[in-house]
């Protein structure tokens, strides 16, 4: 790739890359080791036991290499086709060491290395070392899940039965109400990303619950620094008015649990309101950045909703630890969760909602490479009315994780995914890394000067915590 700006590196003392490589990654590997240990406890099978012990020792070696700034070594052949590109890039980039390497490549490489350890075994091949964490945080999201479930049930029931939204009497009012709800659903979907597990190394479960409620969302609106949602709504509305038969929206997913739950809320609303006729979800194919969605997470979420009392009526280990008591769901709460289950599994069964995995999403490079390295996927995305990219990592990949000036137009920073691509891109991103573009002149400086913003340290600290967000659109026209 050729960029007008250079990529963030783990040797940049003022970037979040620096702390990530030295503090976050070793913790994440340690948590993975703990998880495998827990699974080993219940294992009787001899082969699974010995392979499991080998997995633990390989993970421990990897952690040692990261902590002691060793060289990145070629990923062993585990039978998958994507290894070659990783290893070719490793060679092309020269002798790389953990503490002085391009952040984006190294972080992707880390998760691919972890995956290759499991894939070299036969009993642990498809094991997800982060599944436990993902499910248990989803359990802790109960208050926000219940609040949203009740609201979703009301809205969708009314749309399906009366083809309207409460209070709307004329066509104009209905359209206005549709827009208001669209903006709200997208904002729910945006902030649902603030709680990803790779940042949990410094957030408590209480903090997370606070972040998810509707009060929090209203208070956070002023933290959306650029908001192009109206443009996205116009695109979908125009296609609907043209009477186009098939109108697809794609969501390049980010995290499982609560974030996937709110992605489903948005998808369900788009279908029920007729703003889209199909929704395509793009999950990951290997355990990724701790909390990202794998196809199995989708199934796990639906199963939890199918038997909500068993899931939400009992406590997560963390809550038990905190001395909380189990509270059974009320009949109404139980009914709204059952409604979601039926509504979403219905969409899935009808083919209106599909999951489409592709190993491009777990490659080591940015999305600047999409047209060249994955032409079929590129053609496929052009068919969509709107491609929504969720979360921080997707934004880093869109912008190639480069140190752009923050006033660079979004459409420039996404390179081949921008003007002329034929893809309508919408990024819903809470900021958890240094890169940010498309800001008005002076905005970066203004926020740096706020408490915890980084001041004149040279670090853009405000952009690391998920407190601020950007919602940016590119229409893909030449
Ligand atoms: O900034 C911390 C971090 O873990 C990054 O490494 C990564 O880009 C991001 O958070 C993951 O967040 P998200 O789940 O929103 O992509
Ligand atoms: Mg993620």
UniProtKB/TrEMBL annotation:
Query: Listed GO cellular component terms?
Result: nucleus
Question: Which GO biological process annotations does it have?
Answer: DNA damage response
Superkingdom in the source lineage = Eukaryota
Q: Which GO terms describe its molecular function?
A: metal ion binding; phosphatase activity
Q: Which residues form the Damage-control phosphatase ARMT1-like metal-binding domain?
A: 21-446
Q: What does this protein need as cofactor?
A: Mn(2+); Ni(2+)
Query: What reaction gets catalysed by this protein?
Result: beta-D-fructose 1-phosphate + H2O = D-fructose + phosphate; beta-D-fructose 6-phosphate = dihydroxyacetone + D-glyceraldehyde 3-phosphate
For the keyword Plastid, the answer is no
User: Does this entry carry the keyword Metal-binding?
Assistant: yes
Enzyme Commission (EC) number: 3.1.3.-
Q: What class of enzyme is it?
A: hydrolase
Its keywords, alphabetically, are: Hydrolase, Manganese, Metal-binding
- Name the job this protein performs: Metal-dependent phosphatase that shows phosphatase activity against several substrates, including fructose-1-phosphate and fructose-6-phosphate. Its preference for fructose-1-phosphate, a strong glycating agent that causes DNA damage rather than a canonical yeast metabolite, suggests a damage-control function in hexose phosphate metabolism.
Q: State the family it belongs to.
A: Belongs to the damage-control phosphatase family. Sugar phosphate phosphatase III subfamily.
**What is the protein name given in its UniProt record?**
Sugar phosphate phosphatase
